Structure formats: C-alpha cells, structure tokens
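#struct-pred

JT: dropping the chains for the assembly here, can someone run the whole complex?
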Amino acid sequence: MQFNTLSPIYLQIAEYIHDLILNRIWDDGQRIPSVRDMAMELEVNPNTVIRTYAMLQEEGTLENQRGIGYFTAKDARSLVLKQRREKFIKRELPQLFSTMETLGITWEDLQQYAHTEEVGNEIQA
Amino acid sequence: MASQEVSVSSEYGIEGDVVVRMTDISFAYQSKKLFSNLDLEIRRGNIYGLLGKNGAGKTTLLKLLSGQLFVQGGSVEVFAQNPQKRTPSLLQEIFYLPEEFPLPKMKATEYLAMLSPFYPRFDHTMFGVYCKDFDVDLNQRLDQMSLGQKKKVLLSFGLASNTALLILDEPTNGLDIPSKRQFRQTVASAMTENRTFIISTHQVRDMENLIDPIIILHDGSVIFNDTVASVSDKYVLNLTTSEPSKEHALYTEKVLGGWMVLSERGEGSEGQPLDLETLFNVVIQTSKGTMGGVR
Amino acid sequence: MNRLLALLKREWKTGQKDYSTYGLVIVLLLFAFETMQSLVARYAGSSFPMEVYSEMFPGFLLLGGFITTSLLFSEDMFSKDAQHTWLMLPATNLEKFVSKALISTLVYPIAVTLLFFLASVITEPIQLLIFGSPIGLFNPFKDNELGSLLAQYWVWNSVFLLGATFFRKAHFVKTVLAVGVVFLGLGALALLFTRIVFAIKFGSSLQMFDSFMYFDSRYLQDSLTALKVFSGITKVFYYAVLPVFCLVTAYFRVEEVQATDAV
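RK: done, full complex below.
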C-alpha cells in the first residue's frame, strides 16, 4: 500500500479499512487480520496498526474478542456508510459547489457528465 | 492483543516498562568528546528509530547500551543489569547487528548450528522462514556473500533468536530495493509486545512508517525521544505561497511552490503531519530554542 | 554445561579448516618420509629405516602444539574486527576460557597421538605392498616416552597459553623470548645466590670453582638428601605449581580483557 504524506498513517490505514468494508471485501461480522499480519502487509509499525484498530473499535466499526482477535462489527458497513456520507456532505460538497461556481458549471452540465463513460470510469478508479 | 493496548490515548507507543535506562552518561574517544550528560529511556514493545547526522555517535550509543563500549561517567541499565558486566543472562537477551562485520568462512547452515545454541529461545522454523522471505541461499558460504546477503542472514538470525532487545545498526545499508521492502515486512511481523527493537539509520525513507518512537542524537545528547504522533498532534505543516512571518512559524522550509510552515495546531486546524525527514530537520534546527513537545 | 559444549563446538567449527590442513600436512609428511626411507633402504641397500613416527612425534606434539596454542586467543580476543563476537557471546568468562584451554591441553595431544597412529596404519601397508618394507606401526607406549612427553607438553603448553592471552600480537615469539628472559634472570639469580652462599662460608676472596675442592665426603650424604628434597620440591613446582599458576593467570587475563571495552 502506498501512503501519502497528507495525513497521519494511522488515519490512512483507517481509511483503507473503511474502503475494504464499503467495498464488501470485508463483510460485517467477519474476522479480520491480526495486528501483526496487518502491520506486515502494510509494512508499518505494529503499534500504528494497534492505534488504528483502537480508534475503529471506539467508533464501533471493529470489535475485539479477547483471545480470538478482531472482527468487523455487525453493522460495520452501515456505520462507515453513514460516516462517509456525512463527510461528503459536510466537506466535499461545499468544495464542489464552490468550484462549480468558479468555473461556471451548471447542474445540467453535471448531469450530462455523470452519464458519459469517461467520467464514470474516473470516478470508479 | 491485550485489552490495555486498546484503551490507548494518542500517547500510545511509549507505554511499557523501561528496558534501557542511560543516566547522565559521558563518553569520549581519546580526546574527542562525544557524549556528555546524555539521558535516554527506552520502553518495551516498540520499534525505536535512532537518527542523527553522520558522526553524531549513533553506533557508539548502540555499543554503549549493548555493553561493547564502556561509559566514562553516568550509568547504563539494560533489563536492570549493567551491560558492562556482560553476564550471559543479559547477553542472551541482546542481539546486535553491526553495520559492517566479518563472518567466518563457513556456510550459513554451519553458522546457525554453531551460534544458535547460545540463544535459549532461538526459533529454527522462523529462521528458515525469514531466510526464505529474504531469498537467502543457506548453503552458500558466508565469506562469499555480498554485504546485503550477509546482512539478511544475520538479520534473520537476530529476529529468530527472540532476544528481548534487538539492535540494528543501519540494517538497510547494502540491501537492494525488494529486500528493503521485505525488511519492513519481516521486522513488522517479528515484533511482539515483549520485544524491543532499536534501529539506527540515516535513510529515513527506508522505514518511514516502521520506526516510532524516534530518538534524535545531536551535539552529544539525545534532543528528541518521542513518538511521531506526539509531534503531529501538536504541530502541523502547511504550504503557503507567501513568505511566512517569523513570529508564527516555528520552522520554515522553502519548497517548490512556496514555503512549508510548521505551526502549532489550533482547534480544528488542517495541515499535514510531519514526515520523518522534516521532523528531523525541525528538531535539529530548533534544538537550541524551545519547543513544547520537543525535548 | 550446554554453553561449554556449544563453545567447544564453536572452537572446532571456526578452526576446522586450519586443523584439517594441519592434520593433512602431518599425514603427508609422514608418508613422504617413510617412502623416502623405503626408497633409500631398497636402492642404496642400507639397513632398514628407523621409525620416522617416534622421531617426528615430539616435534609435532610440542612445537606444533605450542604454536597452535599461541594462536588460540589471537582472533577472538585481540582482533579489532572479530573480538566483539567472542566477547559478547552469551557465556561466562570461565566457560570461554575453559573451552579453549580444554582444546589445547587435552584435545590437541590426544588428537595428534591418534593422528600419528592413523598415519602409520595408512602408510605402513602401502609401504609393504610397494617396497616390501616390514610393518612398523606408531606405538606411543613404547619406551614409556609418551608419559614424559605429555608431562612436558602439559607444563609448557600452559606457559604458551598464558603467552597467548597475555600478548596482543606475535604470541609465540614473544612467549619464547619472555621464557628466555625469565631463564636468564633465574640463572643469574642462581649464580648470584651460590656466589653469596660460598662467600659467606669461605670468605669472599675465594673463587667459586676452587671451593669445590673443599668438599668433604662426610657432608656428601647430607648434601644428597638435601638435593633429593630439593629436586622433589622442584618437580612439584615444575609439574604442578607452574602450569596451574599459568592457567589461572591466563584465566584472569581473559577476565581483565572482558572487564575493559577492548578499544
């Protein structure tokens, strides 16, 4: 996994895990890799993974069953979805609107672009 | 993982018992003074990164704390023992990988059979796994291997020895690009809460996300010994296009397209966390001034 | 105990190549000499060759042994590059010293004796086949020479072991020189002592060698018992006190090096 320098690593790992859950690569209530395996896969300090897991556990996305390991919560996906939607509405939409205003792009333009193949692909990527 | 590790604050990472304590140590080579009044505390369960300019004394510090060199003043305690006594009970808990080293004229397998009995918790299975991961041919003779190959053998040996303290002096020197990646993976996987790794390096990019806490050695003393998070939580980096005023900026660096400015993190302020290189530069430059989280 | 075994194994492993080469040289040399003697005996018609083995045995046991012993600590204790691997090995100083001392005092003489025997076992049948020379195996117990040789080896090996730990470089030569100096010193002291004793008894004007003329047969018996006691004491000193002293001092020397940071 490639990290950027824009935000702390433990947050980037949290985002990565959110993505896994959103994209159903990790199902709800599924057992997930141990701290050690995750640290190895991501080539990061195990303590960083512990920090991420702890944070995700606090927000309710992950559960720790002592002696067994970490699991995604029963409602993990809906939690993440809610969180992501909030973030989109509160942070990304205002930026989008402001950019649209600056560039003079209208709602009609947007709708038109949303159905072309090119942009669709880019969004997926 | 134990539950206590989960109820962590942002300070996570430097909890755990003190395994190395250096108090007020001084050391000099002949007439060249290297350390004076140096203090250092190292806690269990962490991968420490030891950074410092060339000649700052990284290797010397590692040799002092492993008992190869003797301090001239002050005291060193490793697992509550004086490493200078070199008792077998302590030595079998320390593995030291030097930056450069001679190895005997024999095959890696013979070397293993010769030295593994000295380490009571040596794990032969894991040694095989590490060597395989590193792509090392155990039937090759050690004295015919390149520095990188030798390092991989010794690194595998050190990781498999399960010593409580593992000291690696510039371990990525001589490793090729895939091996550096393998190095990060292997070290991350070999880490347990009962072990402590100390890795000295000047190639911070090789282990940007691996080492934490960071120890910075400068001008004969430890001027920083804390987690990266402790700094990221207090300070932010921002890119500005106008030249920053000296008052608000703790540290500025001219970059492409403007200035990187380090300032105290206010309520909800946005900004980049520090990468290790910037952290190092900031700490070295501000070492004479005062900076809250930097000691 | 496990660590001592591991140390012994390490000694063998690290020296394996050198020891094997040395052993091979011995076997080849013995074979070559035997062959030469057989050739001479056959074509020059001289009488049958004497035994090469027992002639060469003392040389290899003593000289070869002392050189080997001298080099025993060279790498591990005094080489800048390698000393820390040995000093930092998880074992006590005593274990480290004993492992090396065992190799040189016990393993080496036994190994050389066996090697000579084996060499003769290999060489002799070949000589018999080619030249028809009679078989003369190496018998270390012949003439009871082995015992006294081993005793000498024990004494002087301890001295060289001390030299090996004491000197940082050129261990063998320096030990030989040191022993020479000590002997000269002791000789001078003995001379001085005798001179003083005679001077007290006969007055200082008397030359030492003239004094022998004053020996009286009445005193001879007393002198002989005194001499016997004296030689008894000397033997104990030579075979027991001196080597043990050397070994103990060598051990302390290892402790001393271990108690410094060796830079």
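JT: nice. Chain C has a mean pLDDT of 83. Chains C and A do not touch (no CB pair under 8 Å).
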